[in-house]
Structure formats: structure tokens, C-alpha cells
Specification:
One of its GO terms (molecular function) is glycosyltransferase activity. Keywords: Glycosyltransferase, Manganese, Membrane, Transferase, Transmembrane, Transmembrane helix. This is Putative UDP-glucuronate:xylan alpha-glucuronosyltransferase 1 isoform X1. By secondary structure, the protein is an alpha/beta fold. The protein has three domains: about 70 residues; about 180 residues, Rossmann fold; about 60 residues. Helices cover about 40% and strands about 10% of the residues. A six-stranded mixed beta sheet has the order 2-1-3-4-6-5, sandwiched between helices. The chain has a three-stranded parallel beta sheet with strand order 7-8-9, with helices on one face. α6 packs across α7 and α9 runs parallel beside α10. The protein is flat.
Amino acid sequence: MEARQRSSVSFEDIYKQRLQRSQVKDVEKPFHIKTAKCKFPPLKLVLVIITFATFVILLYSSTVCNQDHIAHPLSRPHFVNKWIWGASDPRYISDLDIDWDEITKATEKMNSNGSEGIGLLNFNKSETNQWKQILPNAKHIDLHLDYIEKNVTWDSLYPEWIDEEQEEEVPVCPSLPKLDVPAKRIDLIAVKLPCRDEWNWSRDVARLHLQLAAARLAASAKGSYPVHLLFVTNCFPIPNMFTCKELLVREGNTWLYKPDLNMLREKLQLPVGSCELALPLRAKERVYSGNVHREAYATILHSAHVYVCGAIAAAQSIRMAGSTRDLVILVDETISDYHRSGLAAAGWKIRTIQ
């Protein structure tokens, strides 16, 4: 009897244990199903949000590409910035309304049988189309110029002080992007320049960059044919780059120049600003290689002796700054022996000229 009771008890215990396990599994199973069901909708929602955001970005970028903006050839970082933000560099934008009658009158003064090629820089699409209507027989070339870096400022181009003695390092100007020279001939380079209403509009880095790029393109012309430069701006172009005697005509905000290309090439050999020493072209490789070199401060004094005191003060200032370079002054016969003795006492080495 005891064995039978033990066996019955054991069977009952086993049955109860199995029943409890099956109930536990039944309880856990719905829990997992519910958990899975709870996880699935958020994942699906995230995928829907990502898809919608991608569609909005693509739609916005296509709208930006169709907008009337300035055509610039952009490097990869600039292209990414423009694709994301949908705007050109504000430093290069000009809000000037173009008077096309002024441009028509100016181009008629070119005294040529017609322009074979016209390079257009910093004009938007509608303005480019207007150019094609004014000069329909010419080939219009959109010139692409990369923007300068944000950290390039007027102070970095024209610093107050550089290491002229080159004791620590050789001062070098920041690099400015250049235009790619087209394979086709260009007779006219037209540029729309920004001109802010601020008092220091002449110290606009973007404005300087556009003019230098146009000048370099003009100087790269090969052959004897003339190249004209036309600027659309309500502020006058760089006077020491484009002189008054080279100005053919000015019609309101339109300035048409016929530069001396040989003279322009010589000007472009100089540094962009005071950020770099203006050294002889053949001496640059020698100087930058670290070889010993000899340099001097030189000036000229002629026709009057009223600047003798200024030359003496300049010599003393150079010596007080610690420079050991030679001081050479060129004088003519109008400078008396009395004034020459004062210059020599200040440290100038006097050379007589005719």
C-alpha cells in the first residue's frame, strides 16, 4: 500500500509540475509576441520618416538648382555647401540692377568687327541670357571661379607687419583660386563686381579676387589681338591695375578698358598684397632656397629737396627697427651737397642719376 501511495503521489507531483511549466510557457509566449508586436511599428515608423526626409531633401535641392543664382564652378566642399544650403557665397553677390543700354553703348566703342568670344564672370543665368541677346553672334563662355577661403581677409593680404629679415620664416601671401583658361579665344571679359555700401568697399577681398582673376585671364591671351575688360559696378575698379588712360568709355556703372597686356603681365608678377616681399623674379628661387642674399632699401629723390627730411626720418626708422639692410638713395643734381651730407649722415648710400 505504501508503495502504491508513493507511486500515486509521485505521479500527481509530476503532473502538477508539468502543468505549472506549461502554464508558465503559455504566459511567457504571449509576452514575447506582444513585445515583438510592440517593436515592429517603431521600426516601420523610422523607415517611413527616413524615406520622407530623403524625398524632401531631393525635392529642395532640385528647386535650388533651378533657381536663378550665380554660376560658379565649385570645388567639392563648396558644392556640398551649396547643395545643402542652397546659396552662393554672399561676398560675391552683387545686387546692382544692370542697365543694358549702357552695356550696349560701351560695347559699340570696342572698334572691332565683332567679338569672337565673350567670357562672363559673376553673372546669373538671366543676365547671361541677356548678354546673348545683345551680342548674338559671339560665343558666350561662362567663367567658373572657386571662392576664396573664409579665413582669407584683407588683413591677411595686407598685414601691418611681416618678417622682412626672414629670420623665422619666408612670408607668403594666401593663395587665391584662378580661372581655367578656356581653349577658345576671348576678346571681351565681362565681370559683375560687388560693391557694398560700407565705407571700406575698396577693401573687399571678393571684389579684389574677381578683378585679379579677370586680369590674369586677359594677360594669358596669346597673339596680337586686343582683349577688353568690362566691369559692371557702381564703385570704380582698381586704379593701379586698370589705369585711367586704359579706360575707353564709362557709361554709368559700366567701365570698358583696353589694357596694355605687357604692362598687365608685369603687374601680375607682383605679390597680391603686402603679405609677401616683392623680389626680383629670377631671385625668388635663390631666396626661397635659403641661400645667403643681399638686399637693400632703395628710394629716389629728384627735382626738389623738400623730401630730404622725410628720407632722413625713414632711414632712422629702418635702423631703429633693427634692420641691417643697405640704404641706397638715388639723387639728381638738384640735391645740394649740404642736403647730401645730411642723407649720408643718416645712413644713405648716395648714387647720382641724370
